[in-house]
Design brief:
By secondary structure, this protein is an alpha+beta fold. About 25% of the residues lie in helices and about 35% in strands. The strands form 3 sheets. Strands 6-5-4-10-11 form a 5-stranded antiparallel beta sheet. Strands 1-2-9-7 form a 4-stranded antiparallel beta sheet, with no helix packed on it. Strands 3-8 form a two-stranded antiparallel ribbon.
Length: about 180
């Protein structure tokens, strides 16, 4: 009779030992795979934005793109890129990188098609500031010779938060 009770104790002990081994293995696996590390901060949230696009009218403001930050988190300008898809207007796409800057230099600040006006002072507003916050504007020009815009032409402008890869602003603009 004592042998039967002892058999149950041994089986129960082995089950508990296997359970402890499984829990220890799971904890070590999670630690090795990095699930125990801190998660990166999420991308900032630009709750509301707007934009405008002026067609090539030969005037001072022609080919000008403005993206307004109306509400939401402030964003460090060094952590963003501006992607412009002008495929519908001139079949080109380009990105402004290496911000902040007041001159969009083709070698330092442009990836993809160089459709941007690189003259000094053509990058205005928050493009040459530290922070893009509510009330600020990204203001730049597309070069007439590289991508001529007529009234009704459309472009898409995306502001990408580079540390997270998240698109924090996307504006589809029609040239007026």
């Amino acid at each position: 009779m004592f042998g039967a009770e002892r058999g149950q104790s041994e089986v129960l002990g082995e089950v508990l030992l296997v359970g402890v081994a499984v829990v220890v293995a799971a904890v070590l696996t999670l630690g090795a795979l990095g699930f125990g590390e801190e998660v990166d901060d999420p991308a900032p949230t630009v709750a509301e934005s707007s934009g405008e696009l002026v067609a090539d009218d030969g005037g001072f403001d022609n080919q000008r793109v403005r993206i307004y930050h109306e509400a939401g988190d402030p964003v460090r300008v060094e952590n963003v890129e501006i992607a412009v898809d002008a495929s519908d207007a001139c079949e080109k796409r380009g990105r402004i990188v290496g911000l902040p800057t007041n001159t969009i230099d083709a070698d330092e600040n442009v990836r993809g098609a160089d459709i941007f006006d690189g003259r000094t002072g053509q990058a205005k507003g928050a493009l040459d500031d530290e922070v893009f916050a509510a009330g600020d504007v990204f203001d730049f020009r597309l070069a007439s010779g590289a991508c001529e815009l007529d009234p009704g032409d459309r472009i898409t402008v995306r502001i990408v938060h580079t540390p997270s890869g998240a698109v924090i602003v996307e504006e589809r603009l029609t040239a007026s």
